[in-house]
Structures are given as structure tokens and as C-alpha cells.
Amino acid sequence: MTTYLVGLDGSGPARAALTWARASAAAEEQIIAVHAPLPPASLGYETMGGIQPMPVEQVSENFLDQELDGLDDPRVSGRTMTGDAGGALVDLAAEVGPDVTVVVGHGGSSKASLLLGSVAHYVVHHTDSPVVVVRGDTRVPVRRLVVGVDQGDDDDEPDDRSVVALRWAVRLPGVERIEVSHADFVPAVAAGPLREPGLESDGAVADDDAMLRHAIDLATDGAGVSPNGAEIVPVVAAGTGAFALIEASRDADLVVIGTRGRSALVELIVGSTGLDVLAHAHCPVAVIR
């Protein structure tokens, strides 16, 4: 069973993250709403006329009571922590254990939010747990997934992290369709006799399709059938991997990508498919290590 951790700060993206978690969690699973104010700025209280400021812990508890009041959802509980929100979510994820998914709202563009230290980017780069970044249209319940699959060092083999991401996706409850997507960009200047720029030859498409089907076999322990009952469809797309996933996100409820965990600074300098998808997807994105 999965425990969902959601950071609440009173913002619209944070409330959307809680909505996503409540729509995705099974009846027997837990959702912990976490509030971690940064004292003293978050207090908002000054000692005036001898009046003592309210303790930060009490302020946080009052905030959670207000945010969760009226939900009438026994799966949801609140927890206050000290420090910054990103660090609190990472620490709590490590404390809860391996069966945890962290859900955070996305508050800005990819490169800018890295520089500004957003909670979403901090959590993505500092936890080993799956992280769902709620952005774009929050489409719930989650019925249609798109999973990006890269090639490994051997072109015939899928990347290990892609298989881990697909393994997570095929076990997400309630999903009805999973599109397993791979794209190889062919620049127009090099397209030559191909049918159209950006589209591979028939032989390359067949190789990619075989690689995707192999990834599906690995993620389902050879069964080829999704444990959650979803239809699994291999899709060989044209264009770059980021472009293909962003376009697919227009009709998906969730995009799932694997990551090798490269540092934020390196990704900022050289670019990253994951960062581009996080910045521009039209629906929530799950990042799986």
C-alpha cells in the first residue's frame, strides 16, 4: 500500500496536489498533508503592546485544521514539521519508507523554478521516492497514462530507469490505458528519403517497437499484461522525446518518466527531457527514480 505525502502551503497548486492524491489513493491507503512553515517569516506575528506571538507550531496546526476541515476523508491526516517545505517532504518520505509517493504542486517554469528553489524541484532532486508534480490540468481520476521509455546503452535494450517507471505505472490503481512511448528525432536536414522529417525509417520504427515490447515484458515480469488491468499500447513517436511526451500530455491524465537522478546544476546547464516535460506538460508528471 502506498502512503501519499502532500505539501500544503495554502496555494492553489498545493490544493490541486491534495485533490490529485485523494483521487488516486485507494480506500485503504494513507494521505499525509504536511505543513512546514519557515520561522520567523511565516509567523506573521510581532509582539505588540505586550501581546505574545502565537507559537509557530500552533500556527501550523491551525492552518492544517482549516485546510482539511470539511474533507470528511478518513485517509487524510495532517502533520506539522519545522524547516522548509521541500526538506520536510524529503525527510518524511525517508522516514515513512519505500512505499511512499510525494505529490507537489508546480509553481513556475522549469529553469526559473530551479533558480528560485521551488518545492517541486527540490523534492524531485533530493528524494528516492516517486514524485508526482501536479501541473497543467488536474485530470482525475487518473485513467490514461503515457510512459516515456528511452533506449539503454545497448540500442536493443530499454533504459533501466524507464523500466522502473513503467513498472510503477502498470501498478497504479484505476488506470485503463497506458501508452508506452519512445521517440527518436531525425532532423529534417538528415531525413533524406524518409517519409517526412522527424520520422524514422520502417526498419528503425520496427526496432523501436520491439524495444518497447521488451520493456513491457520486463515491467510485467514477462506476462505482457498490466497488473492493474490497463490496456498497454506501444507508441513509436516522431520528434524529440520531450516534444513527444508534451504533445501526448494534451490527452493524458498523467505522464510518467524515469530519471537517473542527475544533479540540478548539470540539468540546468545541458538541458533535460525531464525538465522540459515538467515545465511544459499539460497534465501532472510522475518522476520515478
Short characterization:
Helix content is 37%, strand content 19%.
Layout of helices and strands:
Blueprint: E1 3-7, H1 12-24, E2 30-35, H2 56-68, E3 76-80, H3 85-96, E4 100-105, H4 110-116, H5 119-126, E5 131-134, E6 144-148, H6 160-169, E7 177-184, H7 188-191, H8 202-219, E8 231-238, H9 241-248, E9 254-258, H10 264-270, H11 273-280, E10 285-288
For the biggest sheet, the summary is: 10 strands, mixed
| Distance separating the two termini | 18 Å
Helix content: 25-40%
Largest beta sheet: strand ordering: 3-2-1-4-5-10-9-6-7-8
CATH class descriptor name of the largest domain: Alpha Beta
CATH topology of the largest domain: Rossmann fold
Radius of gyration: 21 Å
Tally of structural domains: 2
Which architecture of the largest domain does the CATH hierarchy give at level 2?
3-Layer(aba) Sandwich
Number of strands: 10
Give the helices and strands as they follow along the chain. EHEHEHEHHEEHEHHEHEHHE
Low-confidence stretches: 40-48, 112-117, 189-197, 263-271
Strand content: 15-25%
Number of helices: 11
Would you tell me the overall average pLDDT? 82
Structural class: alpha/beta
Tell me the overall shape: elongated
CATH homology group of the largest domain:
HUPs
Characteristics of this structure?
10 strands, 11 helices, 2 domains, Rossmann fold, 19% strand, 37% helix, alpha/beta, ten-stranded mixed beta sheet, 289 residues, single chain
What does this structure look like?
The protein has 289 residues and is α/β, with parallel strands linked by helices. It has two domains: 3-134, HUPs (Rossmann fold); 144-288, 3-Layer(aba) Sandwich (Rossmann fold). 37% of the residues lie in helices and 19% in strands. It has helices at 12-24, 56-68, 85-96, 110-116, 119-126, 160-169, 188-191, 202-219, 241-248, 264-270, 273-280, and strands at residues 3-7, 30-35, 76-80, 100-105, 131-134, 144-148, 177-184, 231-238, 254-258, 285-288. Residues 40-48, 112-117, 189-197 and 263-271 have low confidence and may be disordered.
